[in-house]
């Protein structure tokens, strides 16, 4: 049985039991629900009456089960009827919009304007008390809820590409509604359903309690609560049983609908634990060592990043070696899943919660000339380095900037954290914005992020990153989301920043080889979590020494090749890494030897390295 | 209006196409016109791949949707095989849909996550009765094979595939109805380089084997240049240059095309010491376009005359024209 189906066992059994007991009421050996036994009124549980007797001496257990029959029938019946009606209205209104929306969703919303109890009273008064009118009243009451939920979900789904694809296919609108849209609006529908069943039971109880629902002597939970209330001082337990039944039933239905919703989702969402359950990384921070005078700005050796916890051994990055000299631009390049972003996040201490650095070292030389191992640093240590020593530009500036704070305030905040004197901050903010090329900085510093265009947001993001003059700037795909002319502007800005601050090292993470060629001095090519080749950009691109680098360059549609070189297959997922060389299964040069052991690094030339045993034959 | 030279009669034709998305300001405010596409005239013949390039907001996706008949034009008309798409409705329109298909940018959004790949590829076959119901399974397998996927893929759901594989599924779905015309809206932009090459190669093979007319929308100039026979460059909803790929990208006649080409990073970087030849400023708001030539606010060649009227197309070669009063073929350094 799949893990998903197993989640359904508990709520399934609970609801199944409930339904079975209620359905089997006529054949169960229960006492007659109307049989009065006045001498035995209010007597407690006994062998004959397991839950005791009520104010007329009737058996409470029998009345509870028969009452459940009425309550459940009304609640589930009206919830289902309202679901069918409301879903139809919502689907039609959401898909066709316009006039259809007016006569379906908007019309049903009129009902929402009436007080629910008043509406129920109206129906019951017109049609008389009883189960039928009650179901009708509740159905009317809940239809607009469904209609609205389904309408909102339909609006969301109808604009998705796969619905457009169905339209383009020439599918009939009704076929699109039932086959494509309905299954995709089902999750919110189920949540709504569980809420409505619960709420219908409460209203049924309430109406019965008022004497407008189920007619005595037919038992229902609402009637039982009503009767027990009068005798609360004498027999408090009489109130407890129907209330417990009501609460238990509602909880079981909620659980079932919740689980059903997660099972129906084909994408398995890995459940993340609560934030306070993540234990903070407790590492013995090594004392900073004085650095050698010619030490590079950053030297990463043999860095490994893995998933923590029971699935230990799932290494996402391993054997990463990168060296950054002051003033140098190093590009980390690779496809998605290559570990290039994780490597850069590890340098900032920003790895996602369940990931951790599990080996190797990342020696950073600070402004004071001491060496810090970033692989061993704790949160406090990173806090001291961030912004003033190491800083980062993120890919999506729209997501990385705080939407409710003005750009100038965010910059001021960053400057303040680094201890800039308060008096100098406003002028420095304007200076920074001018430096990154935002026009009219005096006025623009009062703008919110959404008021800036994509290119300007990225500029503001860069201003934030360089505010405290970091010595190492990490840029994670900073131009990927931008248009060509804006991308050129931002690349230009990076070049200019490097000219202005000669000692700053730049680590540029990208998947775009052409961008690498334009901006970087050295390139580090990563594949499936490993560094496969590195060296000076011009040399590596002119004569790649690893089959992956060679194939990557040949797959760029530049130059006159009639056919592009496509690398067959795709990057293996972390849990299914091939033994030996990770590129071997997709490699034209692969030999049996490649799968035996991971290749060691060779140095084809000064300052270059490659992890391929046949590097001499590549180009 | 333009010279088709020796090309065959067009399959799809857009005549002075325009799309307005009026935006109301406040409850009682006047609606402001926002033209996503203006005055686009374009023809695509069988076996021809027309590339549409431009930056986000230039109207290229809206143009694609209108050419597919998914969006109704505000002005002008789209004619497919001689029939005005706007006048064909109901069952007739759905039958016509068989002959035109679309491949979307995001392979994660264009497939229904809840249905198997086989069911989705088979939809078109069922809807249009292309093969007898009994043969649908075999036909789906053939289609999947055509895009390089195993037949076993049919029973799996989209989330089990990688981005490149999903995009192949999307292509297989588009091919299922045996269309004559395909609109591909940024089909490789969301893919990794090596995977992108797989899909580009696939599209080239299909064009050759099936004699398709294709509208290929992309902001990646290298891919467009590699794949397309003719190029349309758009800026702020208008075509600024149109012509054969070799000419438009070899010696662009419009200053915007030149700027786009210089801005595109290359494996062989040019003039690195001097930095990039950067086009200043950003795309103007379509709600408030500049008078006259839409590009004049950023154009290095702009002069007073540019603000007076939208420039007419000037013929710069056979089937090659640019909307600029200073249009002149010039190679990009």
TrEMBL record, chain A:
Region forming the signal peptide: none
GO biological process, one term: peptide transport
Domain ABC transporter: 298-553
Mode of membrane association: Peripheral membrane protein; Multi-pass membrane protein
Keyword Nuclease annotated: no
Cell compartment(s), UniProt: Cell inner membrane; Cell membrane
Residue intervals of the ABC transmembrane type-1 domain: 68-257
InterPro entries in the cross-refs: AAA+_ATPase, ABC_Ni/Peptide_Import, ABC_transporter-like_ATP-bd, ABC_transporter-like_CS, MetI-like, MetI-like_sf, Oligopep_ABC_C, P-loop_NTPase
Record-annotated membrane-spanning stretches: 72-96, 117-142, 189-215, 236-256
One GO CC term on file: plasma membrane
Pfam families for this protein: ABC_tran, BPD_transp_1, oligo_HPY
Keyword Transport: yes
Keywords from the named record: ATP-binding, Cell membrane, Membrane, Nucleotide-binding, Transmembrane, Transmembrane helix, Transport
Any one GO molecular-function label of the UniProt entry: ATP hydrolysis activity
Family affiliation: Belongs to the ABC transporter superfamily.
Name listed for the protein in its UniProt record: Peptide/nickel transport system permease protein
Automatic annotation (TrEMBL), chain B:
Main location (coarse class): membrane
Biological process (GO), any one: transmembrane transport
Keywords from the UniProt entry: ATP-binding, Nucleotide-binding, Transport
Sample GO molecular function, one term: ATP binding
InterPro entries membership: AAA+_ATPase (IPR003593), ABC_transp_ATP-bind (IPR050319), ABC_transporter-like_ATP-bd (IPR003439), ABC_transporter-like_CS (IPR017871), Oligopep_ABC_C (IPR013563), P-loop_NTPase (IPR027417)
UniProt key word Transport: yes
GO cellular component, one term: plasma membrane
Membrane topology value: Peripheral membrane protein
Localisation: Cell inner membrane
Domain ABC transporter: from-to ranges: 12-261
Family the entry assigns: Belongs to the ABC transporter superfamily.
Official protein name in the record: Peptide/nickel transport system ATP-binding protein
């Amino acid at each position: 049985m799949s893990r998903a189906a197993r989640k359904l066992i508990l709520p399934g059994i609970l609801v199944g039991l409930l339904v079975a007991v209620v359905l089997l009421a006529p054949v169960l050996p229960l006492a007659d629900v109307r049989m009065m036994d006045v001498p035995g009124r209010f007597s407690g549980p006994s062998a004959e009456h397991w839950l005791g007797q009520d104010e007329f001496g009737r058996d409470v257990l029998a009345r509870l089960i028969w009452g459940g029959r009425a309550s459940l029938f009304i609640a589930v019946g009206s919830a289902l009827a309202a679901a069918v009606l409301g879903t139809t209205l919502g689907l039609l209104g959401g898909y066709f919009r316009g006039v259809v929306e007016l006569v379906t969703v908007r019309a049903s919303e009129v009902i929402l304007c009436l007080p629910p109890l008043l509406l129920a009273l109206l129906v019951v008064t017109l049609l008389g008390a009883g189960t039928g009118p009650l179901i009708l009243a509740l159905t009317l009451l809940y239809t607009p809820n469904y209609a609205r939920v389904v309408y909102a979900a339909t609006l969301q789904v109808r604009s998705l590409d796969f619905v457009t694809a169905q339209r383009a296919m020439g599918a009939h609108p009704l076929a699109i509604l039932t086959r494509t849209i309905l299954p995709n609006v089902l999750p919110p529908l189920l949540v709504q359903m569980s809420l409505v069943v619960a709420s219908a039971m409460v209203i049924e109880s309430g109406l019965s309690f008022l004497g407008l629902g189920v007619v005595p002597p037919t038992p229902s939970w609402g009637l039982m609560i009503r009767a027990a209330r009068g005798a609360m001082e004498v027999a408090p337990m009489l109130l407890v049983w129907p209330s417990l039944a009501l609460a238990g039933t509602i909880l079981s239905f909620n659980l079932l609908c919740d689980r059903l919703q997660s099972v129906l989702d084909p994408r398995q969402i890995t459940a993340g634990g609560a934030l306070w359950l993540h234990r903070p990384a407790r590492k013995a921070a090594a004392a900073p060592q004085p650095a050698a005078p010619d030490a590079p700005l950053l030297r990463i050796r043999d860095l490994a990043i893995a998933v923590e916890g029971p699935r230990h051994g799932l290494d996402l990055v391993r054997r990463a070696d990168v060296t950054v000299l002051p003033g140098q631009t190093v590009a980390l390049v690779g496809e998605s899943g290559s570990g290039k972003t994780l490597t850069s996040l590890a340098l900032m201490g920003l790895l996602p919660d369940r990931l951790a650095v599990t080996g190797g070292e990342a020696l950073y030389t600070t402004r004071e000339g001491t060496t810090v191992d970033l692989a061993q640093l704790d949160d406090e240590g990173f806090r001291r380095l961030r912004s003033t020593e190491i800083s980062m530009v993120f890919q999506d500036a729209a997501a990385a900037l705080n939407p409710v704070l003005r750009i100038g305030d965010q910059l001021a905040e960053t400057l303040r954290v680094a201890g800039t004197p308060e008096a100098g901050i406003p002028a420095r903010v304007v200076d920074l914005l001018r430096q990154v090329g935002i026009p009219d900085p005096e006025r623009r510093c009062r703008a919110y992020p959404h008021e800036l265009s994509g290119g300007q947001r990225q500029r503001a993001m860069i201003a934030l990153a360089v505010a405290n003059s970091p010595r190492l700037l990490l840029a994670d795909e900073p131009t990927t989301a931008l248009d060509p002319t804006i991308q050129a502007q931002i690349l230009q800005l990076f070049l200019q920043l490097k000219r202005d601050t000669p000692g700053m090292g730049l680590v540029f993470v990208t998947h775009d080889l052409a961008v690498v060629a334009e901006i970087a001095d050295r390139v580090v090519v990563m594949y499936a979590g490993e560094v496969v080749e590195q060296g000076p950009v011009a040399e590596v691109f002119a004569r790649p020494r690893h089959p992956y680098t060679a194939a990557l360059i040949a797959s760029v549609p530049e130059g006159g090749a009639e056919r592009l070189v496509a690398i067959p297959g795709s990057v293996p997922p972390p849990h299914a890494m091939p033994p030996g060389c990770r590129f071997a299964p997709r490699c034209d040069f692969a030999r049996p030897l490649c799968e035996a052991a991971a290749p060691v690094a060779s140095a084809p030339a000064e300052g270059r390295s490659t992890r391929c045993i046949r590097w001499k034959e590549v180009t | 209006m333009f010279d088709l030279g020796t090309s065959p009669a067009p399959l799809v034709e857009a005549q002075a196409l325009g799309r307005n998305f009026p935006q109301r300001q406040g409850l009682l405010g006047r609606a402001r016109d926002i033209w996503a596409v203006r005055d686009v005239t374009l023809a695509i013949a069988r076996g021809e791949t027309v590339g549409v390039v431009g930056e986000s907001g230039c109207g290229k996706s809206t143009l694609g949707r209108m050419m597919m008949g998914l969006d109704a034009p505000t002005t002008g008309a789209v004619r497919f095989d001689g029939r005005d798409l706007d006048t064909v409705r109901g069952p007739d329109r759905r039958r016509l849909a068989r002959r035109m298909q679309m491949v979307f940018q995001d392979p994660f959004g264009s497939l229904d996550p809840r249905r198997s790949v086989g069911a989705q590829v088979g939809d078109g076959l069922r809807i249009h009765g292309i093969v007898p119901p009994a043969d649908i399974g075999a036909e789906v397998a053939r289609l999947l094979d055509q895009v390089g996927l195993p037949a076993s893929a049919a029973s799996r759901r989209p989330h089990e595939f990688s981005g490149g594989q999903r995009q192949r599924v999307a292509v297989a779905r588009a091919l299922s109805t045996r269309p004559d015309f395909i609109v591909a809206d940024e089909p490789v932009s969301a893919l990794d380089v090596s995977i992108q090459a797989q899909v580009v190669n696939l599209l080239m093979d299909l064009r050759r084997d099936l004699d398709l007319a294709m509208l290929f929308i992309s902001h990646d100039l290298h891919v467009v240049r590699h794949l397309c026979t003719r190029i349309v460059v758009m800026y702020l909803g208008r075509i600024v240059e149109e012509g054969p790929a070799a000419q438009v990208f070899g010696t662009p006649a419009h200053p915007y095309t030149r700027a786009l080409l210089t801005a595109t990073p290359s494996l062989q970087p040019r003039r690195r010491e001097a930095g990039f030849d950067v086009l200043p400023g950003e795309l103007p708001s379509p709600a408030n376009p500049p008078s006259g030539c839409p590009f004049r606010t950023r154009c290095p060649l702009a002069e007073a005359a540019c603000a007076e009227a939208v420039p007419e197309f000037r013929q710069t070669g056979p089937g090659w024209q640019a909307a600029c009063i200073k249009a002149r073929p010039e190679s990009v350094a």
